[in-house]
Amino acid sequence: MKRTQAKEDLAAENARLRRWVADLMSGMYVNCVYCGHRYGPNKSTPVTMADVLKKHIEKCPQHPLSKLKAENKRLRRRLAELKEKGASDEQD
Ligand SMILES: [Zn+2]
User: How would you classify the pairing of strands 38-39 and 30-31?
Assistant: First the structure.
């Protein structure tokens, strides 16, 4: 078996297993481990539970990502202030 064929077979198997996991999770509740927010089961939802959880993580107030986003925002604001200050210092 050629190496590329083996790679394609593994990718197909991976896709099949991901669909299986999505099917298994569709009948379950999924909780955010950081804030406990609960989703599902909802068979009418067009996205998988994993996708629902990914969307929640982006806005979960207790997920470490939220802390990093806030820090990023603060640092960007500070950087803009320093750039402004630097520009005005050059003019003096
Ligand atoms: Zn959460």
Answer: antiparallel
Tell me how far the alpha carbon of residue 54 lies from the centroid of ligand 1, in angstroms: 10
Neighbours of ion ligand 1 (CB under 5 A): 32, 34-35, 37, 60
Average pLDDT value for residue range 2-18: 94
Q: How far is the CA of 4 from the centre of ligand 1 (A)?
A: 40
Average pLDDT, the chain: 87
Q: Determine whether 10 is exposed, middle or buried from the number of CB atoms within 10 Å of its CB (0-12, 13-18, 19+).
A: exposed
Hey, what amino acid is at 5?
A: Q
Amino acid occupying residue 32: C
**Count of all residues that appear for the chain in the document:** 92
CA 73 / ligand 1 centre spacing (Å): 20
